[in-house]
Amino acid sequence: MGQKTHPIGFRLGITKGWYSNWYAGRRMAPFIVLDELFRQHIEKEYPKAQISRIIINRTSIKTHIIIYAARPGVLIGKDGGQIKKLQQNLERIVRKFHKEHGVILRSRKGQLPAQRTTDSKIEVSLREVSRPELDAVIVARNIAEQLEARISHRRAMKAAIAQAMRAGAQGIKVRCNGRLGGSDMSRSEEYREGHIALQTIRGDVDYATATAHTIYGTTGVKVWILKGMLYGKVDLFPWLSEPARPAKLSRKEKKKSG
């Protein structure tokens, strides 16, 4: 039996940062549920935006949600109207959660904790993924979408590997598991190119999984991408210094979104 370690969890706090940043003491259960509800709603409402990851930062004043997407124009909409609508929908999710699950928000004395009001003010900002070929989440989901469209799994995997290596990856590994090609028995196929650092912590390895729902059943997709080596002190919170996506769109993005 193999002893496998999650590539991102193995480097968490050293070269990888957290996707949720907040502190709630012993009352952390409702905030974990809200984080999952936020991510499910955003990914369900904007499947064509090619969302990579969603960062949630909570403070005593507001909740800041940062969305990394390869096509931010889909999220912005015309004149930035989609962002305001998204903020309203997320605030509606919080109000509904407080109404339906207010019991778990209460302390032993029956009083609501002070952190309850932090989700009433939600701010959404966007970051653009400049090279989606090097993002494991986007690559895995693209392969899963091709499998659902009945494209050959070998063709989809090899095309993703070729695109990643052309974009500058030092190594990539793709694995699919399921009834590949409609076979009667489930099997696993793996293709790789370059080098993947498994035990080197300074290796910038991006890892993601996706599920393709085909007519033969579900097919799992795993992607490992080695972008390079990190030396010195690593910034675990790069979004604090990155510029946010402006609300105005170019002509090309307006045509894509509209």
Structure overview:
The chain is an alpha/beta fold and 258 residues long. The protein is built from 8 helices and 8 strands; from the N terminus they run αβαββαααβααββββα. The protein has helices spanning 7-10, 29-45, 72-76, 81-100, 102-105, 136-148, 153-166, 251-257; strands spanning 20-21, 51-58, 63-69, 122-128, 171-178, 187-194, 203-214, 217-229. The chain has a 4-stranded mixed β-sheet. The protein has a 4-stranded antiparallel β-sheet with strand order 6-5-8-7, covered by helices on one side. Helix 2 packs antiparallel against helix 4. The longest helix is centred in the middle third of the chain and has 20 residues, at 81-100. The chain is globular.
Provide the descriptors you would attach to this structure in a database record.
4-stranded antiparallel β-sheet, 25% strand, 4-stranded mixed β-sheet, 8 helices, alpha/beta, 258 residues
Radius of gyration: 20 Å
Strand percent estimate? 25-35%
Q: Could you give the order of the helices and strands?
A: HEHEEHHHEHHEEEEH
The protein's oligomeric status is: single chain
Biggest sheet strand order reads: 1-2-3-4
- Major sheet details: 4 strands, mixed
Overall mean pLDDT: 85
